[in-house]
Design a protein that fits this description.
CATH class of chain A: Mainly Alpha
Oligomer: heterodimer
CATH architecture of chain A: Up-down Bundle
Helix content of chain B: 40-55%
Largest interface: A-B, 53 and 50 residues
Number of strands of chain A: 0
Distance between the termini of chain A: 51 Å
Number of helices of chain A: 12
Number of domains of chain A: 1
Order of helices and strands of chain A: HHHHHHHHHHHH
Strand order of the largest sheet of chain B: 2-1-3-4
Strand content of chain B: 5-15%
Radius of gyration of chain B: 22 Å
Largest sheet of chain A: none
Helix content of chain A: over 70%
Shape of chain B: globular
Chain lengths: 218, 439
């Protein structure tokens, strides 16, 4: 078990990060080159102003008519994403590992804050899950893969939380935590979770398309 | 639907179309849609028909283009028939959903892509297929001959010259500032629309002409999914404008004509820069400039007294960027202007767009059902007059007025402006001796 853990936090972690970052970069570069011939509109009418506005208004809570039209969903959605990015990146335990491996690390959150963040993330995920099941217009679109991805996204948080509190078998929890996180990282570039970067591409696209008409997209 | 004997589906042609359209945007949109369903509430079909989840924009793409790519084009006629129902019967490509999607996914582009695929297999609403035939043979959707068109213009010029001295409808005048193009319905059924425009141009002392070819600025091929023909249609117009050496092409009060000439046309025609070769101006913008610059003055006594509302045509406001100008015009012509809610770029489609009106009786029932949202919007304003600078909105709202008993009159800007404008002395008709002796 120790060997497996060593493997997971060693070569497997490297592989996961390389696939995660490399996959996203390759996907972006590929799409950009494809767009040069097939999506002329993006190049013909490229506009930094409309692109940035199109992104900005949807990154700000309730910054667009779309968000304002569904405030409960929008709130759950924002909280979910802030915790999803904030907790793992600024977690003390993670930063300690960075420090040990490379001698540099990001500033860390107090554990108590990270803990609240984890719980808030899981609660907001439940709201999103409930919405997916309860609202007919969302349920009809949802596939097993959508549910799987939501659970996979939450899984490292659940296992991390349990491991931190030493609930259940610690070693197994840690293995599951690292393994599930690595699976998540690897899946991101090849799934709808690619929106981690493609959100920007997509928002720029509509920003340009509507911007050339002088119309807002928020 | 065309009654022709069903031909086998050419999956090779479908695959080619899928491949051509498999660009960075469609690829991204299809793969990142988070299935959040936020688009549903933005769609008037969804809202009007009891929030049927199958009418959410994301579902319409999921059931059509997504499936086509998933099956790699290996589909049968039944599947395409199902698509037909969705892409023409449940979407007007108004693009409102794109404003409500967190990713800004452009559903209308994807629906248009499926229209192209169905069209390639001859699966297209009969009303639209008929206009395509007319465009091919005569260059206009109504199949009107050049002689008839010119005769109609001359007839209108003669009639209107009795009201406005010196009024002419120049045809093919080289070097004019504006080349005024119309919707083929105007010479065919509403020739007075041409007369109204002529009055306004004359009083504004505009240097204008109408072309003898390329005068129909509509582009129903764009809605039928026939990009090649759609390109040919704008080419007729662009090349005539270049031949005459005009400074701009003016578009009548028609929404999709503007979307076609200004934004989609260059792409259908394959102009690499994506820009029309000649500047294009919509009537709404033009009339606003005349009023702003004092070239047209409105008689305050002739301003509209009764409550007036404005129908934002999707292809003028959201897809054309002209939502401020009409509201400026309202300040000159209406005493009691009441905006609908929502309005401007967030307006709801009237239900007659995207080819719905020319799609004919087969789609009339749905058109009336989905138009309920617009009917309620209009009723809530209490307006008695609806100004709609778009022929499709005009027809749809007139039909809705009857269906929902709204007690409204639908008019165009040119009708109101041409009636309410002050005719300067020099354009006053010269009274003949006969008339003087009668007095």
């Amino acid at each position: 078990m120790n060997d497996f853990y060593e493997f997971l936090t060693g070569p497997a972690l490297w592989a996961a990060f390389i696939i995660f970052i490399g996959g996203l970069v390759i996907r972006l570069v590929y799409l950009y080159s494809l767009s040069k011939e097939r999506d002329r509109v993006l190049h013909n009418h490229a506009s930094l102003k409309w692109s940035l506005r199109s992104i900005f208004h949807w990154l700000v809570p309730l910054g667009s008519v779309g968000w304002r039209s569904q405030p409960v969903f929008a709130t759950a959605f924002f909280v979910f994403h802030v915790c999803l990015l904030g907790v793992p990146v600024f977690l003390l335990a993670h930063n300690t590992l960075w420090q040990e491996a490379f001698g540099v690390a990001l500033p860390s959150l107090p554990d108590s804050v990270a803990e609240v963040g984890t719980v808030v993330l899981l609660v907001s995920a439940l709201v999103l899950l409930a919405r997916r099941i309860v609202r007919p217009e969302v349920r009809i679109l949802s596939t097993a893969w959508d549910y799987t991805l939501l659970m996979l996204t939450c899984a490292p948080f659940v296992t991390g939380f349990l491991a931190y509190h030493q609930l259940g078998p610690y070693k197994l929890m840690m293995i599951l935590h690292v393994l599930l996180a690595e699976i998540l990282l690897v899946v991101i570039p090849f799934s709808k979770l690619g929106h981690i970067v493609l959100f920007f591409f997509s928002r720029i696209s509509i920003g340009i398309e509507m911007g050339r008409r002088g119309a807002r997209t928020w | 639907m065309s009654e022709a004997l069903p031909k086998p589906i050419n999956t090779k042609a479908i695959k080619e179309l899928l491949d051509i359209n498999d660009g960075a945007r469609i690829r991204t949109w299809l793969s990142i849609c988070a299935r959040c369903g936020l688009c549903a509430e933005s769609c008037f079909f969804y809202l009007a028909k009891g929030k049927d989840p199958k009418l959410s924009p994301a579902y319409k793409v999921k059931a059509t283009l997504n499936e086509l790519y998933r099956r790699k084009g290996e589909v049968d006629r039944d599947f395409l028939q199902k698509c037909y129902n969705i892409i023409w019967g449940e979407c007007t490509t108004c693009r409102r959903c794109s404003l409500f999607c967190p990713f800004g996914i452009d559903i209308s582009v994807m629906i248009a892509t499926v229209r192209g695929i169905c069209n390639s297999q001859g699966i297209v609403p009969e009303g639209l297929a008929k206009t395509s035939e007319n465009y091919r043979t005569t260059g206009n959707q109504m199949g009107m001959s050049t002689e008839d068109f010119i005769d109609t213009c001359q007839w209108m010029a003669e009639e209107t010259a009795e009201e406005i001295r010196g009024l002419e409808i120049p045809i093919d005048k080289p070097g004019a500032r504006l080349m005024y193009t119309v919707n083929a319905r105007e010479p065919m059924y509403y020739p007075q629309d041409i007369a109204m425009a002529a009055k306004i141009f004359t009083v504004a002392e505009e240097d204008w002409t109408m072309p003898s070819t390329g005068w129909d600025d509509t582009n129903l091929a764009m809605f039928a999914g026939d990009r090649a023909l759609g390109g040919q249609i704008v080419k007729n117009m662009y090349s005539k404008a270049m031949e005459l050496g005009v400074q701009a092409i003016a578009i009548t009060e028609c929404g999709h004509a503007y979307r076609s000439a200004m934004f989609e046309g260059p792409y259908m025609l394959g102009i690499r820069s994506g820009k029309p070769p000649v500047p294009v101006i919509h009537s709404v913008r033009l009339f606003y400039e005349y009023l702003r610059d004092g070239r047209i003055k409105i008689d305050p006594d002739k301003m509209l007294e009764e409550p007036v509302t404005y129908q934002d045509p999707c292809n003028v406001s959201r897809n054309g960027g002209l939502w401020a100008e009409p509201r400026e015009i309202m300040k000159y012509i209406a005493k009691d202007f009441r905006d609908m809610a929502p309005n401007g770029i967030y307006n709801h489609c009237c239900g007659g767009g995207g080819g719905f009106i020319p799609m004919g009786p087969e789609f009339k029932k749905r058109r009336m059902e989905s138009g309920r949202i617009k009917a309620e919007q209009i009723r809530a304003t209490g307006a008695k007059v609806v100004i709609a600078p778009c022929h499709n909105c005009f027809d749809q709202i007139r039909d809705l007025g009857k269906e929902y008993d709204l007690g409204i009159k639908v008019v165009s800007f040119k009708e109101i402006i041409s009636e309410a404008m002050i005719i300067p002395e020099k354009f006053m008709p010269v009274e003949t001796d006969d008339q003087e002796s009668e007095e």
